[in-house]
Amino acid sequence: MDKALFESLLRWGDSPLVLSQQLSAWCGHGPALEEDLALANVALDLLGQARLWLTLAGEVEGAGRDEDRLAYLRDAPQFRNLLLVERPNGHYGDTMARQMFFDLWHYFLLERLAGSADPRVAAIAAKSVKEVTYHVRRSSDMVIRLGDGTEHSHALMQASIDALWPYTGELFVGDELDGELDARGVGCRPESLREPWLSHVRDVCAQATLTLPDEAAACRPAHRGGRQGRHTETLGYLLAEMQHLQRAYPGAAW
Amino acid sequence: MVNASAASAAPVAAARVMEWLSAVPDPEIPVLSIVDLGVVRQVGWEGDCCVVTVTPTYSGCPAMREISQGIERELDRRGIARVRIDTRLAPAWTTDWLTERGRQALRGYGIAPPAERAVDVSGILPRRDAPVVPCPHCGSARTRLVSDFGSTACKALYRCAACQEPFDYFKPH
User: B4-87: which CATH topology?
Assistant: First the structure.
């Protein structure tokens, strides 16, 4: 089994999967009907992308696990998502700040993976990046509108950016696995995504009249580890809800 | 797009099968056929098994299962007993594959067809130069974007300032 590829596929698939589950919780609770619809649609895109990655992960592993078994029958330490997507939905500004940070990272990652030497990886990435282009535009626009909105919305948005900022460091910390896939031309080093990401985040925040926190605040080890399976408390509760049906009724099908 | 080399030995010409598939509606926009939507990429034969290659629209589109079932039902009705549906991801589906007939069907149904070519993935900042999307009801150009996501992921929500009607816009993708 190609362990490095398998692990990387989980990393690429688990973040959209967990974020999709988080966003789905807004369905029926959005601040406006249009927002509700938009978030549900973004969640659906992310779920579809996660399915493609996890299906391929199952094929690469060759142990008979399909997308459903990988999504529903792994426990938290086996998940490889970023800690950022585990941050609670909070209020709408929190969700939008999280989304903007994630979408920009996701966009630059997929753009790189679309040129992967593995045609299966390239195909999923090239398809996903088109969808994510719309996600990025929308979440950036919302951060700008809320940041450059009223005094109240500005204060809330700034607090959201400050609170989530420490979790953005992890997006750009690579390990041996990333190095191996990068050397094979299949994946990329997360460090290489930082510059374009930061440049766009700065641009969005400037338009939103928001102040970016100190870069050092995003370098604490306590806010890292999701890609290696060390998660925050939130993931356990999230998986309990997401996996309940399959755990309670193994093999249940729609 | 038909597989010409296989067509000579095929039980039914691939072009004819493609014609039959033009009768299979998209589950969410029934005035649009799956061929006009551009998801049916190829028809071929492996022995007596008809192989239909489809390219999904959006990754999370819940209609893909219904589309497969629609293909199987139609071909079964036409007397083809063995059908296999292959999914092909690359090249990724784009609204550039919508046929002219498909675009007209959308307009007639009250959905504005894409006003430009496939989404430019290099432009990720909010659009300031978005193209004018004429209202499919009254034709006015005085329309504005309400939300980039409408009733489904493939549509945006617009409103017409002339006739006051809201409408869906099939996004360039």
Answer: GMP Synthetase; Chain A, domain 3 (3.30.300)
